[in-house]
Design brief:
Helix content is 41%, strand content 21%. With 328 residues, it is α+β, with helices and mostly antiparallel strands. The protein folds into two domains: 88 residues; 221 residues, Bira Bifunctional Protein, Domain 2 (BirA Bifunctional Protein, domain 2). The strands form two sheets. It has a seven-stranded mixed sheet with strand order 1-5-6-10-9-8-7, sandwiched between helices. A three-stranded antiparallel sheet has the order 2-4-3. Helix 1 runs parallel beside helix 4, helix 2 runs antiparallel to helix 4 and helix 5 packs across helix 10. It starts with a helix and ends with a helix. 26% of the residues are buried. The structure holds 3,4-dihydroxyphenylalanine (DAH).
């Protein structure tokens, strides 16, 4: 009985020193209630008691065990609820949430769809063609002879001596006309590649939209009207543009369209165009006496640069989200 009382006292001082954390409580619990704990050793002493003493002792011991269990449970509860309320305090409901980053359509893709929509609205169909092509479709069929400087190693990425990464989307003019009888009216968006010096307006790859219209009567005035309509739709009615005489092997006569670059205060070329050369029509088996047409090829990056005041073509390709986010 004396030992039992001393264990109880010891427990009261231990528990009053208030364990700091769940581990301390656990530790104390096993000191008293564990298999080799103080209470268990009291039970072990029962063997030494007489038969008359045993029932009273047993009752006291069970009471002690019960008391201790209740106390430990209480402490543990206090601890876990105070822990929980500390956690509740740490949730500041007024803080802004973590917003997931949402991607956006690349500004080039946006520009491309604007261009497509404008031409679709005046009867053009959209077609695509190969980025890797033979030199016949990229050059010869377009009336670019074997030793023309456009074929120079400096400008063209060769896959093998007769296969190239297309240098323009004009190769698709040939594929379309080979596969279809006139009249035809297509635009062809796509990627092109050039091995040229990289600068603010030139990159080793870029995008073009080719246009081709073949019919029985097609005039240069229609070509001008079509491109003026496009520019007005794309840039609004007040943007300055000009047609400038030019030369392309696959058109005659040929012209280029420049737009006024407000940022740099100078003209910037956005497209080449012209009346499809009869030699090209003959190459695809069209009767050049009967069929005429115009064609054009525009630089998508340059159009986006002018429209959205982007001062360097390389920005389209380096994936910097600070740039891309401005167009989301
Ligand atoms: N293919 C030419 C280039 O890459 C652009 C061009 C000019 C396309 C005149 C045409 C055209 O269809 O008629 O610079």
């Amino acid at each position: 009985m004396e030992q039992l009382e001393s264990v109880r006292k010891q427990f009261l001082t231990d528990i009053e020193s208030f364990p700091e954390n769940p581990q301390d409580i656990e530790h104390l619990r096993s000191k008293y209630l564990g298999r080799k704990g103080l209470v268990a050793s009291l039970f072990a002493l029962m063997g030494k008691a007489t038969a008359e003493e045993r029932p009273a002792l047993g009752k006291e011991l069970n009471l002690l065990k019960q008391d201790l269990t209740v106390k430990f449970d209480e402490k543990e509860n206090i601890f876990s609820t105070s822990q929980q309320s500390a956690e509740d305090d740490s949730i500041d409901l007024s803080l802004p949430g973590k917003t997931p980053r949402i991607g956006s359509i690349h500004i080039l893709e946006q520009t491309l769809s604007e261009i497509k929509d404008i031409f679709k609205s005046i009867g053009f169909h959209v077609a695509y063609g190969p980025e890797v092509d033979d030199d016949y479709h990229n050059f010869s069929a377009l009336n670019i002879p074997e030793h023309h400087p456009a074929r120079d190693m400096q400008d063209t990425f060769f896959v093998d001596p007769t296969t190239v990464l297309r240098t323009h989307t004009s190769n698709v003019q040939i594929h379309l006309m080979e596969n279809e009888d006139p009249p035809i009216r297509y635009i062809v968006p796509g990627r092109v590649y050039r091995n040229e010096a990289i600068g603010y307006k030139s990159y080793c790859l870029f995008h073009q939209v080719e246009g081709i219209y073949i019919n029985e009567r097609v005039s240069f005035a229609e070509l001008k009207g079509c491109l003026e309509f496009f520019v007005k739709q794309m840039f609004g009615p007040n943007k300055k543009m000009r047609f400038r005489p030019s030369y392309f092997p696959f058109t005659e006569p040929s012209a280029e369209v420049d737009m006024w670059d407000d940022e740099r205060q100078q003209w910037m070329e956005i497209l080449g165009c012209g009346m499809v050369d009869p030699a090209v029509l003959e190459n695809v088996g069209y009767d050049s006496k009967k069929w005429h047409g115009y064609a054009f090829g525009m630089g998508v990056e340059r159009i986006a640069m002018l429209k959205y005041k982007i001062n360097d073509i390389r920005l389209f390709y380096n994936g910097d989200t600070r740039f891309l986010e401005q167009f989301s």
